[in-house]
Task: inverse folding
């Protein structure tokens, strides 16, 4: 139990509960109401927090599957910067599998964090949703890049399907009719991207089957191998779209090694508009999923929750195709 629970039960903001705990300026009626709720709920403030003279640890837990991923690393950086502006510290947990995820959820609750931010659409998968919903019963939860319908859960999502669909249509308008799609996972975000790819083909009047969508590990060499295998099988394509920038880099390296001119013979589009997209030669066209904006909005959702403002359950962020030399 934390002061979020007390604030929710008393119908006041977390700041008000904090002032009550620390003998701040609070109306007599409000003070009595908050104290009564704490007594009824048997609330005992965290000893360390009270020793600091605070009613809250002013700490937010952040859970991510890994930190070497450029997308996740950028999200963490922006979250930390914006949380700090609002006086909150960050506890980072890297949970690569279900066992670790549950362990870190318990750890963060034991640390009495004021909220938890989850990065990545994998936290919105069916097999994860129950754990997230249970976590949200004890503390506010924000998902960056995903959303589930559950009390206490809020999400900031990217319009992945629409983004890939529009990228396909843009390439069609440039004369491309034969496409290849490389993807690394079918997380909720991955599923949306793949669906957008085939919807884009359909809207362009292009017949396609599953063979033009190839799954491969999120690795540059794996992407090169997938492109080589596709060519060897007799597939014909003049445009490659990928679910991540790393896969697009693999396509570019294969083209360079085999004398394929980009974009004259092969156009390539990545996803995330990461640092990689500006480090390749030629610079990579990529879909910008606005991870900075999503992370900033996630923090603002928390601030709204803490201050008892009206807070939407889900916010959608539009993407942008950033065209560079590969298209």
Result:
């Amino acid at each position: 139990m934390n002061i979020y629970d007390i604030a929710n039960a008393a119908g006041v903001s977390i700041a008000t509960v904090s002032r009550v705990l620390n003998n701040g300026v609070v109306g007599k009626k409000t003070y009595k109401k908050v104290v009564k709720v704490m007594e009824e709920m048997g609330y005992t403030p965290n000893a360390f927090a009270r020793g600091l003279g605070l009613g809250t640890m002013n700490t937010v837990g952040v859970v991510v599957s890994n930190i070497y991923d450029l997308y996740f690393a950028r999200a963490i950086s922006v979250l930390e910067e914006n949380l700090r502006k609002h006086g909150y510290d960050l506890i980072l947990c890297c949970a690569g599998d279900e066992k670790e995820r549950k362990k870190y959820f318990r750890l963060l609750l034991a640390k009495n964090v004021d909220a938890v931010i989850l990065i990545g659409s994998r936290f919105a998968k069916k097999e994860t949703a129950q754990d997230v919903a249970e976590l949200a019963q004890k503390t506010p939860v924000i998902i960056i890049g995903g959303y589930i319908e559950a009390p206490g859960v809020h999400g900031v999502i990217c319009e992945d399907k629409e983004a890939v669909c529009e990228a396909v249509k843009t390439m069609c308008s440039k004369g491309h009719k034969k496409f290849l799609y490389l993807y690394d996972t079918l997380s909720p975000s991955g599923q949306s991207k793949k669906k957008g790819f085939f919807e884009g083909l359909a809207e362009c009047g292009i017949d396609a089957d599953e063979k033009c969508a190839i799954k491969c590990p999120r690795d540059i060499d794996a992407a090169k191998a997938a492109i080589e295998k596709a060519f060897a099988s007799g597939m014909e394509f003049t445009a490659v779209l990928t679910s991540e920038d790393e896969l697009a880099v693999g396509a570019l390296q294969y083209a360079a090694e085999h004398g394929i001119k980009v974009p004259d013979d092969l156009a390539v589009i990545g996803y995330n508009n990461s640092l990689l997209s500006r480090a390749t030669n030629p610079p990579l066209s990529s879909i910008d999923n606005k991870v900075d904006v999503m992370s900033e909005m996630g923090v603002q959702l928390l601030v709204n929750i803490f201050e008892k403002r009206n807070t939407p359950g889900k916010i959608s962020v539009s993407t942008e195709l950033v065209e560079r030399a590969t298209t």
